[in-house]
Amino acid sequence: MWAWLPAPSHEEAELSATFVPLIEESVLRKVLAAALATGARFAEVFAERRFSRSVRLEDRRVEELSGGIDLGAGVRVVWGESSAYAYTNRLDLEGLLEAARVARAGVHEGSPLEVCDLTEAHPPVKHPVRLAPEDVPQSDMVEVCRRADEAARAVDPAVSQVLVGVGDSRQRILIANSEGLLVHEDRVRTRLTCHVVAVKDGEFRTGGEGPGAACGFELFDSHPPEKVGRLAAERAVAMLPARPAPAGEMTVVLAAGGGGVLFHEACGHGLEADLVAKQASVYGGRLGERIASPLLNGVDDATDVNAWGSFGFDDEGTPAQRTVLFSNGELGGYLSDRLRARELAIQASGNGRRQSYAHLPIPRMTNTYILPGDSDPQEIIRQTAKGLYAKGLGGGEVNPATGDFVFGVDEGYMIENGELTYPVRGANLVGNGPTVLAAVDAVGSDFDTRQGMCGKDGQGAPVAFGTPTLRIARITVGGTGA
C-alpha cells in the first residue's frame, strides 16, 4: 500500500514529493535480492498508484461517470538477451517476493549478484500542476463537457450529434533496480475530446478536437471548452459541401499540426529501437545518413514542459531526454529502452514506456516533432500552383519494415493558383516514409501540436505530435474524383 501525506496547498506550483511509499528501501532490497537469487544479471521493481476519472456526455446526456484507483507492482529480471516479468496488486513484502520468485523461475545462470545501495535520482525537468484531480469535483468535469457541447451546437443547425469526454489521472510511480537506482515520480494528465457529426441534404461529415497536457484542470485556461467544441463542429460543417477528391500524383501541403500523425506513424515507429534490433525497420543501420530533406529537423522530446507525452523519468527510471531524430535531413538517433540500447550499443534515450505495472516497458515515442523552418506558411500555399491542402489526417496503416503507408485525410481542400478553393472528401495519402521525408521542399515558420493515445504491442501510451506547415513536392493521392 501507499501512505499519503496531506495534499499540497493551491499556492504550491508543483506536486513534488507529496507521498511516502510503504515499500521501504529495506523491502525493495529484499525483493531485488530475491529476483537475482538464481543468477539474473539485472532486476527491477516498478510500482504505481493511479487515480483516474472520466466523464462522457452524449447528446446532452451524461452517459458515463467513472473513477477508480489502480494499485500494483511488477518485478522484472534480465539475463543475457532474455527477460521475464511478473506483477501483483499486493505491495507487501510477501506479495512482492512471490512476484520475484515467479519472474526468476526460468533463470539458472550461476551465483547471484549483489544489490547496490539505492540512491534516489531527481528528474531533469518537472511539469508543474496547479489544479490536481483530487482538488476538482467531478461536477466541474460535467460542466466542462456541457460547455463544449453547447458551443458545438451553436456553430450551425447542421450539427446533429455531439460526443464530449473529459478525463484526468494522477499516477504515482516508484522504480528501483539492482544497479542502485531509486525513482519517485508524480504524473498528472488531463484531456478533453469532442467529436461532432454534421448532416445536411443526406450528407454527413465528422469533425473532432482533443487537446491534452501533462497538467491539471488548468488545461482549460489555455483550451477553453467552448473553443474545443467550436473547432470540432466547424471542421464537420466545413466538409459538408466537399467534392470527391481527385486521384494521382500531386503536391500536398500539410497544415501545421495536422501532418504530425504522418511523421509519428510513417517515420517515428520505424525509429523505435525494438524494430531496429529485429531488422524490421527501414531506418535500421542508417545513422548519419541523409534520408530526409535538408530542410527537415525532427526530435522526440519528453522534456517539453507539460506536454501530453512528457514525464520526468521514463518507466525504467531513465531521465527524460530530447532525442534528435533528424538534423538537416540526417538520421540522428533511435528511440530506445535499456535492453535495446545495450543490444544496439547505443545510449538509452529514455523511451522505455509501459501502460501500467502489468506491462513490460518497450520503446515508445513521447512528443515527436518536426521543428519549424523559415518559410511563411501562407507563402507556401501561394507558391503552390495546384495540389491538396491536408488540414487534418485520420487513421492509416504503415509497414515499418518498408516505410510504405496509407493515411486518410479527414479535412482537405484543393489548392488552385496558390489559393485554397473547395473542400474534398475521400482523399488518401499513399507513399513511403523516407521518400516523403526527402520530398519535403518547404517548412513553415509556424508550429502546432496534436495529442493522442498510441497503441503498440497491446499497450497504450499518451503521445503528442507536432509540425509546422510542410509541403511535399510529389506524393500519390488516392481519391474518387476526376
Give an overview in words.
- By secondary structure, this protein is an alpha+beta fold.
- 19% of the residues lie in helices and 41% in strands.
- The protein has two domains: 2-238, PmbA/TldD superfamily (PmbA/TldD fold), CATH 3.30.2290; 243-478, no CATH class.
- The protein is built from ten helices and 26 strands.
- Helix 1 (25-36) packs parallel to helix 2 (93-103) and helix 3 (138-153) packs parallel to helix 5.
- The termini are far apart.
- The model is unreliable at 1-18 (pLDDT under 50).
List keywords for this structure.
482 residues; alpha+beta; PmbA/TldD fold; 2 domains; six-stranded mixed sheet; 10 helices; 26 strands; globular
Query: Fraction of residues in helices?
Result: 10-25%
Shape: globular
Mean model confidence by pLDDT: 94
Named CATH architecture of the largest domain? 2-Layer Sandwich
E-strand count: 26
What count of structural domains?
2
Using only C-alpha atoms, the radius of gyration works out to 24 Å
Provide the low-confidence segments as ranges: 1-18
CATH superfamily of the largest domain: PmbA/TldD superfamily
How much beta, percentage-wise?
35-45%
Largest sheet: 8 strands, mixed
Element layout with pairings:
Elements: E1 2-4, E2 19-21, H1 25-36, E3 42-58, E4 61-79, E5 82-88, H2 93-103, E6 119-120, H3 138-153, E7 159-177, E8 181-200, E9 203-209, E10 212-213, H4 219-222, H5 225-238, E11 243-244, E12 248-254, H6 260-268, H7 273-277, E13 298-301, E14 322-327, E15 330-331, H8 338-344, E16 352-353, E17 362-363, E18 367-370, H9 377-382, E19 386-399, E20 404-416, E21 419-425, E22 428-432, H10 433-438, E23 440-443, E24 448-456, E25 459-467, E26 470-478
